[in-house]
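Its record is quoted verbatim for completeness.
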Amino acid sequence: MATGGLMSGIARQPTPTSARVVAPRICILTAGHLSTCPRMLKVADALAGAGYNVRVVSANFVRWASDLDRDVRLTREWPWTVINYECQSAPMTYLLTGIRYHSCKWISQLRRTRISLHLTNRAHSRIHSELVRAVLAQPADLVYAGTRMALGAAAEAADQMRIPYALDLEDFHTAEQYSSLNGGIADRLVERIERTVLPQARFVTAASDAISAAYFQKYGIRPITLNNTFALPSTPVNNEPSPTEGLRLYWFSQTIGPGRGLEDSIRAVSLARITAQLHLRGCALPGYVEQLRNLASQCGARLELVQHRPVSPDSMVDGCRGYDVGLALEQGDNFNREICLTNKAFTYILAGLAVAFTDTSCQHDLAVNLGEGALLYRQGDVAALAIGLKRWAEDKSQLARAKLAAWRAAQHRWHWEHPKERGALLAAVASIFALQYADCRYS
């Protein structure tokens, strides 16, 4: 287990009771890389900025993301513990956690409904035990966890420490997997964990109103909605269309792969008979970008396809600058995709891009809110997407109005500093400590 952060080696020393009030200690927990979990990164920054003593626990298992983690680490001072199980840099941890994980999963398949929560957690999360130990390593007054693999660890650690915990739900986890044997097992395991730990959480947050509603319907809990918004940019946004002919289209994700609507955008460019650039940011599955280039060639699309390296959450908005249209082409192939609002849409509008949306139940309302800044089409209706892209490509004044409308909507409502976003988080955390710290807590 490696630790990082400028304060990670500073021990908390006892002081006289008359010295000073000590802010509550909050452990932020994620089973993912912090650079690929911007929700927990925003939470850590917001709570540290509000004066809480923040400590972060995250994981390391993907080499490209570990490079971005280092970028994130450079600008933060809160203590940070990293569970490293990347196969090359931590081969023994990778091996041992893998043996435990697959053994527990195998036993869970044999026993199905007769397995304990202890076994369920370890069949669901490869590093469950390591996450629990990392949280327990230092005192805390609250554990707040995000990512599905960290939910059980937060509850188990908090129970041992006899402190409250809170949970964040970026997705509707029991409908997150596609239909397959492994997907079915994962859904069954996470449902067992959720039924146990969600009702006991002091508060729960979720990434869209639709996800909050789905969890209420399933478990009777009422999550607080915190959308995947980001901070308003510190430098001015240029809403002018790019000077090149046609459109500069932009899309990003951790993984560039099928099932994300990119094929629709290529076919639409061909059908519209416009010139376009399609910029993709992320790590591509082997051969997939070449498949897209072959599709563009077969369709006769006048399209230049450009791939970019991933960037850290701190650079996500700046990475969108200079393009015309952001693509939020979520495919409603499973229930979670139908009700999620991803990072993409909120990032695009903070950079002043117009947005093309598929008409999923959750994206519909956001698109309507953006007004002229959005293009909304039914999944698979390439002709409708083509008409909208052609209109923007051939009328740059209309495109400029669309970009400005999207930016104004971001300024007015869809940013992290809004009272319904960061403000709602701070209020939820403050409510936990209102009574506990009413008479002041001293160390």
In short: DSSP finds 16 helices and 14 strands in the chain. The chain has two domains: 2-11+22-229+418-436, 247-412. Residues 1-19, 438-443 have pLDDT under 50 and may be disordered. Residues 282 and 328 are 15 Å apart (CA to CA).
